[in-house]
Design brief:
2 copies of one chain form a homodimer. With about 375 residues, chain A is α+β, with helices and mostly antiparallel strands. Helix content of chain A is about 30%, strand content about 30%. The radius of gyration of chain A is 20 Å and the shape is globular.
Chain lengths: ~375, ~375
């Protein structure tokens, strides 16, 4: 059984590592000749819209999935005429446009920050008059890791924000004074079975995820229930197959949806060691229509991203119950080079291990 | 960092799967073009004594190890002049010859069954007169999975056993009326740090390992201590580096050494999910002189080998906390095609899951 994967980054690499034990083989397509998945599987190098390459790519493959959410929707639609491809193109279409995404959430009754489309400076000032300040101006498309976003705090910031981003299709969103950022991984298989991982607590810096802790501290049943209800309605509406990540702001005991990613997600990397079944294995089980595995967490897990520089492996491996994941990438500022997962039976032990790790890492 | 591995079977494949997250790359050498490790790493195909190939193999590699214990000692010695190679050649030499191995155990004060070298029919009858019956006649070299062994139960069996095996260098051993077969995995790193996994209980059929349960039922501290003391003396005597497996017979609360394997071992596969650190990762940590990881077991784990035929993945994955490992091999009678690991918090739950699995597997 050969799984074709669009995108050969670390997510693809970890999909392959989860899939080999299931007897699967992998073929990746990525524009970068040094894509991390290429170190351990077949890699075809070229653009996602190279028709001749896509034809070769799909030949002999049993199922296709993707690990990069800016794959052209047209590519996914085209491949879908030859081979099963999951998640469905509609999911990609929704997730690629922040405006469509917010409208989609709204249509399902999932709370979002107030938002408005912005195409002109007049749109922006009009929207801010309604939404209020602070607000966040974002490009509708191709934003990731905080790129394509400007916070507008005062009336003076408005023109500057427009100068930075104006031109592309934009969206302005009310800034939510959230207590925490939480995310959930939801999984749905081809036969419609679903499982949900527990909500995890995420910390970002400079727009990049730095740390996830699973489960979120003091996770109330009602909060997990909200997250499951919201993500279940997304799964159902999209006839979704695979892992879906949904990011929320927590404020006053309720969840406000921020965005979704139709793929395995950085905030789920802890599941490799921290859950009975990892998000990577469950994504593969889902797209192959195999029974889904338990998402149950054993104790507590923390995931720390290695951004820009990676520590000496010996330092990490000397820590108790620390698991190092390097992606085989050259160091570069703000690049995700790997992550470390720490596990512990209880939260105080986890926090102590986390403090020990953080003190040894370059800040 | 590139790790060269002599042998590209499932053990090598699982070494690579454990090593990729550490940022390692792998190069395998195996005579079989379809060796399982070749599906996920560079594979050089050829004989273990092909000097030109070995020269290519070792070029650019940082460290060499092996996953097959019948690699020629001369090959390991030769490679050792170019690059660090672990475990040391002496370990291979000892493990490749059942007579040398038993004498080695004896020299370290480790109990063994009574044994005697057999080169002629007269040697055999003389040895049996001393050792008594039943006894086991074995080839000294190249035995695995019960091959090259004949049980001699009665005086009439002696001539038949000789007819089957006579000619090669042989050893005859007293048959130990054991209660259980246990094994331990011991790990020693280049800096001399050691860790020991708990004793596991193994069940064989037709000379092939079928099942391991970790830790062994009712494992007494004294038994674990014996096993650690014996294996520590082997590690020390050989200045060993890597994972070493030692198999014992348990009889009346004591351990009698049966054999050792200077490599990762089938009876340690449960450690992938069942221990904090798998035997594969710890073998790599050892040969790279990284800190060793904890061998602690969380709850209980059982490993069931898939011999000759493999079940439908969907059947296995529907069981709670079941982990499927297929090696990418074509089915063939008596061939190890994969294994399943079951985990549980307590032994009764493990036993119930094991019974459920066994009832679904072809016998």
């Amino acid at each position: 059984m050969i799984v074709g994967v669009l995108g050969g980054g670390q997510l693809g690499r970890m999909l392959a590592l989860a899939g080999y034990p299931l007897g699967l083989q992998f073929r990746f397509l990525d524009p970068a000749p040094d894509a991390p998945a290429g170190q351990l599987a077949e890699l075809m190098v070229g653009a996602y819209d190279n028709a001749a390459l896509l034809e070769q790519f799909v030949c002999g493959v049993d199922v296709v999935t993707y690990e990069f959410e800016n794959v052209p929707v047209a590519t996914v639609q085209m491949l879908g005429r030859h081979v099963p491809i999951y998640p469905p193109p509609k999911a990609l279409e929704v997730a690629q446009d922040r405006l469509t995404e917010k409208q989609f959430f709204q249509g399902l009754g999932i709370p979002t920050p107030p938002f408005a489309p912005v195409d002109t400076f007049i749109d922006l000032t009009a929207a801010i008059a309604v939404i209020g300040l602070p607000a966040v101006l974002k490009t509708r498309r191709f934003g990731y890791d905080g790129k394509g976003q400007v916070i507008v705090r005062t009336a003076e910031d408005v023109a500057e924000a427009w100068a930075k981003l104006g031109g592309a299709g934009l969206i302005v969103e009310g800034f939510i004074p959230f207590e925490r950022e939480l995310s959930i991984l939801a999984v749905r298989s081809r036969s419609g079975a679903t499982v949900f991982y527990p909500l995890v607590e995420n910390s970002h810096r400079d727009g990049i995820l730095r740390r996830s802790i699973a489960p979120a501290l003091g996770l109330q049943h009602s909060l997990q229930e909200q997250a499951e209800t919201y993500s279940a309605s997304i799964l159902c509406e999209l006839d979704y197959v695979g892992v879906l990540a949904v990011e929320f702001f927590e404020t006053g005991g309720t969840l406000i949806a921020n965005e979704m990613a139709p793929r395995v997600h950085n905030s789920g990397h802890w599941s490799i060691e921290g859950a009975v079944t990892s998000q990577f294995e469950n994504h593969l089980r889902a797209v192959l229509d195999l029974p889904l595995g338990s998402p149950a967490v054993e104790g507590y897990a923390a995931m720390v991203n290695l951004i820009g520089t990676a520590p000496e492996p010996a330092m990490v491996l000397a820590l108790p119950d620390a698991h190092l994941h390097l992606y085989g990438k050259e160091p570069r500022p703000n690049r995700k080079l790997g992550h470390i997962t720490l596990c512990a039976a209880d939260r105080p032990t986890l926090d102590a291990r986390l403090a020990q790790l953080q003190s040894s890492l370059p800040s």
